[in-house]
Design a protein that fits this description.
It is built from 14 helices and 2 strands, in the order ββαααααααααααααα. The chain is mainly α. It has a two-stranded antiparallel ribbon. α4 crosses α6 and α12 packs across α14. The radius of gyration is 38 Å and the shape is elongated.
């Protein structure tokens, strides 16, 4: 097992185990607690002289408190080691901002920062979709969850009592209660997913392309009407113009200008002119039919 050496406040070196949480907890629990005088001296050294060694000693002497606070969040199903790590980040932020002239102990000041970092970690990782985003939702997430461990589903009276106690509306309490009771579902379950997960997956409720009967009927009617309108418009063209358009655009094999020119005994340019004129008449006729239908 690997270890990391850090200096203790008494000048000795502390071997902190890496990768073994139990050994880490035992090691930080063995660090002596600073007296108020020692803590104040170290805090002033860091604040006035930017003494990083003093800041390091303040952090090390309070690692045990981070472990104690992190254990209070075990019920969220997240690794204790990760909770401790996030709490340590909060402790370091607290040491950086600690003012010894206020007259409070560092542990009292650091609790807020430690909990804040752990709260952020829990909210980011408790679910795939973030369950709380607003300030009211964050407050409800941590407080309502504790209440529900004792109460189960809240009655209307309990909902109103919780809302009044936390300073939020009953609707917000009901919404968070539903979020806490929900579970994550994969949009597209993998091959190992069970039948229940597949049925409840959002992907199961996505409509298949072209599955709407009304759209299918409308599409069929449109195609039928379009074919009928095209046939009527072609019938109004002269025989040569109609033949050229059908062979140039509607046949499986598209005839070339040169082929049609040789067949009709005219130039390719003349075939192009006849085609353009016939196309213009066809478009005008189709436009008139669409206007009459509207």
């Amino acid at each position: 097992m690997s270890t990391a050496l850090v200096a203790r406040q008494d000048g000795m070196m502390l071997a902190v185990p890496v990768g073994n949480l139990d050994a880490y907890i035992n090691a930080v629990s063995a660090v002596p607690v600073l007296s108020a005088e020692e803590e104040t001296e170290l805090a002033w050294r860091f604040r006035r002289d930017s003494d990083l060694d003093a800041a390091r000693q303040l952090v090390i002497s309070h690692l045990r408190f981070v472990v104690h606070i992190a254990r209070g969040y075990n019920g969220y199903g997240l690794p204790l080691g990760d909770l401790v790590q996030e709490g340590n980040v909060g402790l370091m932020k607290a040491v950086k901002r600690f003012d010894p002239s206020v007259g409070v102990r560092l542990v009292s000041f650091a609790v807020h920062w430690i909990r804040a970092e752990i709260h952020e970690y829990v909210l980011r990782n408790w679910r795939l979709v973030k369950v709380a985003t607003t300030k009211a939702q964050r407050k409800l997430f941590f407080n309502l969850r504790k209440a529900k461990q004792r109460l189960g589903w809240l009655s209307p009276d309990e909902t109103r009592a919780v809302a009044a106690d936390l300073g939020v509306s009953p609707a917000e309490v009901n919404e968070m209660e539903q979020r806490l009771a929900a579970r994550d579902l994969a949009l597209d379950p993998g091959p190992d997913a069970d039948d229940e997960e597949r049925i409840g997956s959002p992907a199961a409720f996505l409509p298949a392309p072209g599955a709407d009967p009304a759209e299918l009927v409308a599409q069929d009617d449109w195609e039928e009407n379009a074919v009928e309108a095209l046939g009527e418009a072609l019938a109004e063209l002269d025989e040569r113009g109609r033949d050229i358009l059908q062979r140039r655009w509607l046949g499986e094999r598209k005839a070339t200008l040169q082929e049609l020119a040789a067949e009709y005994g005219v130039s390719a340019e003349r075939i192009r002119q006849i085609e353009a004129a016939a196309m213009k008449k066809l478009r005008a006729r189709l436009a008139d039919q669409a206007a009459n239908a509207a």
